[in-house]
């Protein structure tokens, strides 16, 4: 038997999944674990979304759609840009994708060749690094070193060292929750464009900002690739549905790659997702609960010796410096789970260099769970 293993498959594992697997093992044994480890809403998809899916299932056949998605959903997404940001976006520039995860794959394949250098911020979402590594793209990790977010000067310095082909950032960010202020975002995108660097803006945590209105990088010009998803604000992680807004010249290349890679995003989820934009009242109630959790954690985590490493501007994460307790956040997370029954994510996945000093707490759970988790950690630390 010959088994061929490519170098591409040799990407880093998602270390946080080990903590998650252990939390699940404990839960299966009946241990009342509070999980602050997962980056997903605890609420179901909005009622209208679920009704539309039920109706579609009753009515008949679910099949392939156009590779770039159902016309009705592409129009609904375009309308969302008009309603939420006051921006006119043609439905023809929208590609519906199998979660934003597939959008990254498609964008990277359509925009970059093996060996191209693409910058991301550290700490940052680990899949950026892992997908790019699998595709042979050279990843340039820009250590934020205490800065809350990536800004134009970081980009200039990295480009001076060796030329970049692209930059990818998220605002609000995972794991920090930090938001790039509108003027800084504009400076970052303008600088990238002046230097000839293509921009990808991950806006998956939009509509989950607590202090300022959302600014889309699209407002800075039509050359930016924007990636978004129904997973977070819309509580639809398992439906695997997201989208991209593409510069015109990228639409056809993305369509060609999508036809062969995925054929189409799942039709059932597409039909259902059209309803998501109508569920604002329901979803704002969920967001209000996150806001309450955020207030609690902003006070309690520093009291417990977890220094906030970034402002908790958006998303549903608190990213903390844990060096008052440990220099090995992976071991600390395991111990906290085993002894206090609270699961949180060690920083290693988000930042291979500095992550041992940090931990991410997700506050997407119920308020009671957050109160309980803080009490347990307090008791345990004593
Ligand atoms: C910053 C960021 N981008 C993208 C994703 C992927 O989400 P999905 O593929 O569910 O759209 C996540 C998931 O946690 C994320 O945190």
TrEMBL record:
InterPro entries: Aminotransferase_I/II_large (IPR004839), AspAT/PAT-like (IPR050596), PyrdxlP-dep_Trfase (IPR015424), PyrdxlP-dep_Trfase_major (IPR015421). Its EC number is 2.6.1.1. Keywords: Aminotransferase, Pyridoxal phosphate, Transferase. Pfam families: Aminotran_1_2. It is an enzyme of class 2 (transferase). Gene3D superfamilies: Type I PLP-dependent aspartate aminotransferase-like (Major domain) (3.40.640.10). One of its GO terms (molecular function) is pyridoxal phosphate binding. One of its GO terms (biological process) is amino acid metabolic process. Residues 33-374 form the Aminotransferase class I/classII large domain. It comes from the Bacteria. It catalyses: L-aspartate + 2-oxoglutarate = oxaloacetate + L-glutamate. Belongs to the class-I pyridoxal-phosphate-dependent aminotransferase family. PANTHER family: AMINOTRANSFERASE (PTHR46383:SF2), ASPARTATE AMINOTRANSFERASE (PTHR46383). This is aspartate transaminase. It comes from Mesorhizobium prunaredense.
């Amino acid at each position: 038997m010959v088994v061929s293993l490519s170098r591409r498959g040799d990407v880093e594992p998602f270390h946080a999944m080990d903590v998650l697997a252990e939390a699940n093992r404990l839960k299966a044994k009946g241990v009342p674990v509070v999980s602050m480890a997962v980056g997903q809403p605890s609420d179901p998809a909005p009622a209208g979304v679920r009704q539309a899916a039920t109706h579609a299932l009753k009515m008949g056949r679910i099949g392939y759609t156009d590779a770039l998605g159902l016309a009705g959903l592409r129009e609904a997404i375009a309308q969302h840009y008009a309603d939420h940001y006051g921006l006119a976006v043609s439905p023809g520039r929208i590609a519906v994708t199998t979660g934003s995860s597939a959008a990254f794959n498609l964008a990277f394949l359509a925009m970059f060749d093996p060996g191209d250098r693409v910058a991301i911020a550290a700490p940052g979402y680990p899949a950026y690094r892992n997908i790019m590594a699998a595709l042979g793209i050279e990843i340039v990790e820009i250590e934020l070193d205490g800065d809350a977010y990536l800004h134009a000067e970081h980009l200039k310095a990295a480009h001076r060292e060796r030329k970049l082909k692209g930059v990818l950032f998220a605002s609000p960010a995972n794991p920090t929750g930090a938001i790039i202020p509108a003027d800084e975002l504009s400076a970052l995108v303008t600088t990238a464009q002046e230097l000839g660097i293509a921009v990808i803006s991950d806006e998956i945590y939009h509509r989950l900002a607590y202090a300022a209105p959302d600014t889309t990088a699209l407002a800075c010009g039509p050359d930016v690739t924007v990636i978004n998803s129904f997973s977070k604000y819309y509580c639809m992680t398992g439906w695997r549905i997201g989208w991209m807004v593409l510069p015109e010249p990228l639409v056809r290349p993305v369509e060609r790659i999508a036809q062969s890679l995925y054929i189409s995003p799942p039709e059932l989820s597409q039909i259902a997702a059209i309803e998501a934009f109508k569920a604002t009242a329901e979803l704002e109630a969920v967001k209000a609960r996150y806001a309450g959790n955020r207030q609690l954690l902003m006070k309690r985590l520093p009291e417990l010796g977890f220094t906030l490493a970034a402002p908790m501007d958006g998303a549903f994460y608190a990213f903390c410096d844990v060096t008052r307790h440990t220099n090995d956040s992976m071991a600390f997370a395991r111990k906290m789970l085993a002894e206090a029954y609270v699961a949180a994510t060690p920083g290693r996945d988000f930042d291979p260099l500095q992550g041992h000093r940090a931990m991410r707490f997700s506050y997407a759970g119920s308020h009671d769970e957050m109160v309980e988790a803080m009490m347990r950690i307090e008791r345990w630390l004593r």
